[in-house]
Design a protein that fits this description.
By secondary structure, the chain is mostly beta strands. The protein has strands spanning 23-29, 32-38, 42-49, 55-62, 73-77, 91-94. The protein has one domain (2-91). It is 0% helix and 38% strand.
């Protein structure tokens, strides 16, 4: 599931992955750095240890039940508790859609 996550991330704008047509947010909570990338219909949040910046977990969510057991989400590894859902992002980047290259 972590196939969409970088192996490490330090929480800075300079370390954000390239993106198009989605929003990226960075949140700090519970000793973790959360890098969330979403389109409004689906989202992937990658969790990194705040001390060594190594990937420790991931959460994938959808607006439709597309995962095992007709679930709206799935996770692997270490993710924070629900109290971190209320924490405000420290960084938000809205990525414009790629240009279709019309001539």
């Amino acid at each position: 599931m972590s196939r969409g996550c970088q192996t490490s991330f330090d929480g800075t704008a300079a370390d954000l992955p390239a993106c198009a047509g989605l929003t990226q947010t960075v949140t700090l909570c519970g000793g973790l750095i959360a890098l969330a990338r979403g389109t409004g219909f689906t989202a992937l949040t990658c969790y990194y240890d705040a001390a060594d910046h190594i990937l420790v977990g991931a959460l994938e969510q959808s607006d439709s039940p597309e995962f095992c057991g007709q679930s709206f989400g799935r996770f692997a590894g270490q993710i924070p508790g629900p109290s971190c859902d209320a924490v405000r992002p420290v960084l938000v980047q809205r990525c414009p859609a790629r240009d279709g290259g019309a001539d």
